[in-house]
Amino acid sequence: MADSETSADARKHKIFQELLSPSELFQARCQSHKIPVKGQKDFLPNASEHQRSRLQQSLDEHWTLLQEERVERLGNLVKAVWVSEERRVELQSPAGKFWHSMGFSDRGKQCLHAEEALYLMECGNVQVFYRDLPLSIQEGYERFLSSETLTVDQYQVYGHLKRLGYVVNRFDLSSVPSEYERQLNLPASVDRQRKPVKRKRSQSPVSSDNRSTSPLEKTTAEHQSEKQVKSNESLAGQTTPDQPQGELMESLPAPEDSSERTWWTEEHIQPPSAQSQTRAPRWDFKNLSFPDLGSWSRSACLESPDPSLLPGALEVGDCHMTPWLRRLNVKEEKLSRRQRDRQRDRDRYHRDINRDPKVRDCGNWAEYIKLMEERRRQQQKQRPAHLWEREVTPLTQPGQCTSHREVLERISIIKSSSWWEGVSRAPPADQWKISFDVYQPDTVAEFKKSHPGKPYSRICVCSFDGPVPDLRIMKQLSCQSGDVPVTFAAVDHGDISFYCFKNFRLPSDVY
Amino acid sequence: MEVKEDVDADGEDQSTGDDVIDISFCGSTPLLWKVSDIKRCRGAGVIGALVGSLARQPRQNVRLGRPLELMQEEALMLEETTSAAASLHTQDCEDEEAARQYEAALESSYTEQCTLALEDKKTVLRRIMQEKENDTDDSGNAVRDRLNALDQAFSFPRSAMAIQLCTARAGFSHCPDERSFPSTDWPMPRDERSEIRFRVYRDLRSKGYYLTSAGKFGGDFLVYPGDPLRFHAHYIALCMSMDEQLPLCDILAIARLGSNVKKTVLLCSPQKPSETGKDESIEEGVVYSSLQWSSMV
């Protein structure tokens, strides 16, 4: 039909009208790169010519900017291909400067995520092909952005942050160190993707038939050495009963292993075949003295150790401490007058607990604690009846609370909870998830893709039409994020606002 | 959703087939890509918001470029007043012919750019020669030799060729465009709230105001007396149904916000069509209430 033909032709004309001719392309090389500044706005429209002409001028500027197409030298463009099955873009020519902070390698190929590729297309750095035809930005939006990769809102936030200069990566839940790892305080450079470095084990002189059982032996040796240390401590100055010692000794089949691991214990574990008799513990703790090198009154000479303790035929003479003491800073502290006064005030009521004869009589920590408990109970017996025997008793005893905070804690009914309490293990609803890690622009120079380090913030994208996150969701998200703050990016038709919730504790000490 | 090609034959809108505004949907977000479409919309009073990178300077956020994101109400308005259709994703059709045509176009562009570059270089050299004619040294001869040798010695490498990265769909492939005209088939959620918003939008638009979205101001629309490029907004419009109850503290909050940004707050509610057998196609108007701080004297 003639009608449909002309309409099809007309439509094709309309489709192609945004293509530039070669001469236009050639001219575009020297197009300006400055953006005109928007002027002041008026308040009320009147029908004046002045306003109309200014409006027309603004509109013309607007259309000029919008109409411009991206024209690039073919040599500056990186060629890439969209692989729709894997939802990513594979580069076919070497990457440019953007490779420093974007993209990833997979089986030897350089690849970009969907949002990275779309952003680079908009910047005019990458030309993406699909089935041998180049994709326009519109087709990029339609193909790359879907519910499986990114929504349009998330891409808007991504583009906004990238244009400001931040480094933005996809959020990966496995990259967040768990609570346990954080407690261990592992160095930040631990990278999970790397293969665990094989630690060199020291040579253990184990005979081949014992190798299979050596790990077990090592642990049992450790246990035994621990037991020995404990038993020796509690039986200070007494001979150990022969029986348990003998049992311990005989259960050791591989003496060389254990001797290696337990060289630090006081007991030389000699091959049971050689010696079957037990020996008394070597150390007499009452006579052991640990040299106090800090105080002045110490004689500057250490005796030589017992030659039976030394390996081989080593001979060690007396140790003169004077040169060593000179290296230590044992100068007397010269306090200023004010500091001396302050010290004197502090010391006025200071009672040294070590001078208490009853404390000196205590043989170990258990006895000391018992003594303290008794004293506390006695103190309580001295409480005046008119205060303590009625229905209403004083809140604290004198001297028990030393700060306002402690007093306030005693009367608090509402206990403050920490941010981490009560976080449910269930993952938050689908619409609330962390999308990106963001790194600051001024760290771009040192940014390494393999060790990105701790991000500046993590972004969760939401919409102005949607609900505000409630406390449960905020707790879950910040728990997911570890110690990195979570920022909410609210998108409203191109306008992006960033909101961050900061944990705040009310001060409880009154000064 | 497939719309057959012969839709063009019926309906008076479709007679001028090339005047349809193509709305491209990304998820449930309507986007406009062609400058001609954007111009037509602005002529009809639909402003939208630009959300892409600007071609001239892509790495800044002050001025953005295409695509233009439309509010749901704006897309519905376009469908009512002008002829707008949602262009659905074209099928992936195997088209080797298109790839060959593209390659051919690239080649011809390259040869043409070669000649253009050669001409350009010649003009430059001739201009230099002209300047050197006025001097009395021999450097002019060297330039003339270069000019004569240019036809053989000139090389324009392929990597120096200028390529266009199209913003809107260039239509290289010959797959037929599929379009969906009725807005009920568009992938936008329609519920009571969006109906209220659309009625308010349509009413304000018919009074000649320009509207954009106002999430940052705590409202639904920002109402401008003229084109937003040149005028400040006068009102913040909040849409609610007639019988919706609004707590007093919310009213205070929005009034406070409005006075801080020097805009009047409008509470807009479409009137319900009365039950006494009125024709359903006639809709009642919209009731507006403005909030103003008054002092007790």
Automatic annotation (TrEMBL), chain B:
Active site: 224, 232, 263
Residue ranges of every copy of the tRNA intron endonuclease catalytic domain listed in the record: 196-272
Keywords: Endonuclease, Hydrolase, Lyase, mRNA processing, Nuclease, Nucleus, tRNA processing
Start and end residues of each TSEN34 N-terminal domain: 21-84
EC number: 4.6.1.16
A single BP term in Gene Ontology: tRNA-type intron splice site recognition and cleavage
Protein name: tRNA-splicing endonuclease subunit Sen34
Role: Constitutes one of the two catalytic subunit of the tRNA-splicing endonuclease complex, a complex responsible for identification and cleavage of the splice sites in pre-tRNA. It cleaves pre-tRNA at the 5'- and 3'-splice sites to release the intron. The products are an intron and two tRNA half-molecules bearing 2',3'-cyclic phosphate and 5'-OH termini. There are no conserved sequences at the splice sites, but the intron is invariably located at the same site in the gene, placing the splice sites an invariant distance from the constant structural features of the tRNA body.
Subcellular localization, as worded in the UniProt entry: Nucleus, Nucleolus
